[in-house]
Amino acid sequence: MASDEKLKERALLLMRFYWMDDIYKIGKELNIPYFNKSPHYWQIDHYQGALEISTSMTDDGLLRLIEKHPPKYKLDLGGFQGNHYTANENGEVTLSSSWSQVRENVQTVLNKRWGGEKAYGLLQAIINKGGRASYFDLIGEIEEVLGYEYVPSYLLPRMKQFKLIFKTGSNKYPDWTMPSEIIPAVQQQLEAYRRPETPGQPSRTPSSVAIVAAGAIDSIVERIVESRRHLNLIFRSQFETELFRQNEQAIMDVRKPCSNEQDFNNRILSLGILIDELQIESIRELVKTSEPRAGSINVLEAFLEEQFPGYDEQIVTTLRMIKRLRSKKYPIHPDRPELAGALQYFGFTKFPLDWEELWRVMLGRYLDTLEKLRELMQE
Known about the structure:
With 379 residues, the chain is mainly alpha-helical. Helices cover 57% and strands 4% of the residues. The protein has 3 domains: 4-72; 99-191, Winged helix-like DNA-binding domain superfamily/Winged helix DNA-binding domain (Arc Repressor Mutant, subunit A), CATH 1.10.10; 206-378. The protein contains 17 helices and 6 strands. The strands form 2 sheets. A 3-stranded antiparallel beta sheet has the order 1-2-3, with no helix packed on it. A 3-stranded antiparallel beta sheet has the order 4-6-5. The protein starts with a helix and ends with a helix.
């Protein structure tokens, strides 16, 4: 009888070989009860499905299955480097362990002049993040591990040749991944590492400062994208329409750096577009007791008053103040008195303004508004 550890690793191997639709087809072919409960493949859990198949067979059965259903694509993440199973990128499997090689690779990186405690910080950070993280999330976690800021631009690409960390995700939204099957072996080697008694602290260059600042913005925007997506799912389930229209160009624009007033003017225009990207006509049809005034925020306000009486009115106020900052200042219009009131609403009363900080606060308050909407609609 295979151990739980071996069964779980076998499941990870199956997930590396097969997408969820293939796992479903194989499970149905093997007549495993778990799969007969779901009429469609997207209703199963990828890992649970792979684990059900893993539990149903021996090592010989696994090899026969892979021979019958060879992987359709080259394996990503350097093949598979498990403690019980090893596979190359072409899908050729051996019943052997790769962990000694994994530990050797970790030690090699730790011994490198360019590695050392910086490599330790990077490897431990990505493990702390569950084996997968965005570039900017890694920067923040590395600081937690090392106690000082380190930007791993030089180090990350070098991890692929040692099969420890790989660039994944899309070209537009890349992230970094440590293969899940090697995490225990890497962690074991890191626990044996002894950091220098007086750790070095790399000097902060202007470029590293800019990268970290951009990371704070990028992290907020990622959460904005996630919140808008979740709100659309919730809204569609309740009202059979989505709340927002998609606008990838505006999302890309609000991710850009903001270092001066001209940058801010461009970014606030894009944020205003995101606010206006409501499904106005569909939402208007949901309002039965009044005729909403023109304008996306007015329609949203009428909808909230009817469907969620007693809602937090700051939701609407914040959106209006963001739009006011867009429309009550140059270059959209000459600066108007309402501009000072909007700035004060966001906590800015002194001039000259810190445009980068103002932009960060604006994005944060927009995110807060989305999260309040999500909480409201989930109650």
